[in-house]
Amino acid sequence: MRHRRWRRHGGKLGASLLAWALALLFVVPFLWMLSSSLKRNIDVFSLPISWLPDPVHWANYADVWIGEKSMVTYYANSLIVTLTGVAGDLTTSAMAGYAFARLKFRGRDKIFLLYLATAIIPAQLLLVPRFMFFQQLGLYDTLWALILPGVFTVYGTFLLRQAFAAAPDALGEAARIDGANEWQVFWRVYLPLVRPMLAALAIISFVSTWNDYETPLVMLTTPSNFTIPLGLTTFADSEGGISAGLAMAAAVSALVPVATAFVLFQRQFVAALAHSGIK
Fold it and tell me: Where does it reside (predicted)?
């Protein structure tokens, strides 16, 4: 018995040490980025690596926010595109997911499968058609060219459809017996039940939109419309040289909204993963 107990505790200890080692492996690049953001350019790539900046160069953050290459405009553009896109994605995905899961109409399942099949099309193949489409509409080189494609997502509709389908039928039937219309059944009965899944979708949509580089690269040409991923490229000169300290300070600043969103919705995100795993 004692031997089995020691073996069990040894296995847990080994798994814990492996998990901590993997976590440290993933955290190291972020620690290096944070350390480099407080260094002078000449010290960023010095060997051996100095993890503690000496001296601490706070001027990098000052230059990033109020200097000649200020990223305030890029930050504002990214917030507008991301928050608007996430709000639109949650709205359309919730309504479409509810319709496909709870409303009965002719051809519902076939339409859903056809809509789901569009997910196999690589996003890169849609860049040129979208470019031509938005150019004809006069939306090219505007933030709307980034917002509108993210308002409707196949993944969000599928995720919410599965969440609504897993909810009990009796709740909706009881609400209808009490005189609730279809909108009230959706808004007051079923939508609160899928809040964890909405939080998970919000995090996924926020991160993917915030970090999107390809779409702004194709759709935007005016620097005042750049988002953060494009704005980071402005720290490189025409010869390919880069101001490493400024770039790292900008990258650290760009991580703040993503980390904030995850902290705010962490419990709901974990609950959604646990719920989907149980189902």
Answer: Cell membrane
